[in-house]
Design brief:
This protein is an all-alpha fold. Helices cover about 55% and strands about 0% of the residues. The protein contains eight helices and two strands, in the order E-E-H-H-H-H-H-H-H-H. Strands 1-2 form a two-stranded antiparallel sheet. Helix 5 crosses helix 7. About 25% of the residues are buried.
Length: about 290
């Protein structure tokens, strides 16, 4: 057993034991209730900090992308498989209790929150190499940023509408998995906007903020990094079937925006506006 001083007490010399009748000086802070002064002696593993190498960053980037994107990709594949086997249409709303819509919305929001778990992990790993959130442009968006975000979202929606024309003939085909008007109460907008916000922050932080920054540090060319980021971004949208191609224009605009300006707040806001418009149309238009 070894002696362990209470918080705020000076460290005792190695092997020191309080003599019989010893009392701490009155100006020392009181020990917390239940504090264990004697603890078993055991080896303490030292903390070794070393400089990260290029190999460390390569392994980290690969593992982070697998950890962050693997659940999204698997979920997309399962959704598409269900469509192919049962010919069911895509549903982007939770169905925990169809007879209690309010409970359905609350549980749906709760079930979607884990998507946001990627954000603190990605930001923590970037901070290890000196990239603080402000360096990524995660700051308060100004009016100019809002204007750019609106333009990016509008461009993405416009291009999607144009690309959707050839898919009209495939609307009822097993190759395309889409959803129409949702026919739900208007307060489902709360769920739609919340999901749009969580999705925008998580996706842009992972595939733009983290991945593009790491690839730049590893010496990748901007266009090579762009194509990898766009491919990964598209991979977890395969639940749309061939309609996943409709996500390419927005992915292009958002990725290039961060690469050119380094302001992650712009693609996050643009992504949120884009998804919000689609949710509002699906929920409010009957």
């Amino acid at each position: 057993m070894i002696w362990r001083p209470a918080p705020g007490w000076p460290d005792s010399p190695p092997g020191w034991q309080p003599p019989p009748g010893w009392q701490p000086p009155p100006d020392w802070p009181a020990a917390p209730a239940g504090w264990q002064f004697w603890v078993p002696a055991g080896p303490r593993l030292p903390v070794r900090v070393r400089e990260l190498t290029r190999r460390d960053l390569v392994i980290e980037t690969r593992l982070v992308m697998i950890a962050l994107l693997f659940p999204w990709v698997i979920s997309a594949i399962l959704t598409l498989s269900a469509h192919e086997t049962t010919h069911s249409s895509l549903s982007q709303l939770p169905t925990f209790d169809p007879h209690q819509p309010v409970v359905n919305v609350a549980l749906g929001l709760l079930s979607y929150l884990p998507v946001a778990a990627v954000v603190p992990l990605a930001l923590l790993l970037l901070a290890r190499t000196g990239q603080q959130p402000s360096d990524l442009g995660l700051t308060r968006a100004g009016w100019s940023d809002a204007g750019v975000a609106i333009g990016l979202a509008a461009a993405g929606l416009g291009c999607e509408l144009l690309l959707a024309i050839p898919f009209t003939a495939l609307r009822h085909s097993a190759l395309v998995n889409t959803s129409g008007p949702l026919h739900v109460p208007a307060y489902y907008v709360i769920f739609g906007l919340s999901q749009a916000f969580i999705t925008a922050v998580a996706e842009e932080t992972a595939v733009s903020g983290y991945l593009l920054t790491r690839l730049d540090q590893l010496g990748w060319s901007p266009w090579r990094a762009f194509w990898l980021s766009l491919a990964l971004r598209t991979s977890y949208h395969v639940y749309y079937g061939l309609a996943a191609l409709l996500t390419l224009p927005l992915g292009y605009f958002l990725t290039r925006s961060f690469q050119k300006h380094g302001k992650l707040s712009r693609p996050i806001l643009a992504h949120f506006l884009y998804d919000s418009v689609l949710f509002l149309i699906a929920i409010l238009v009957h």
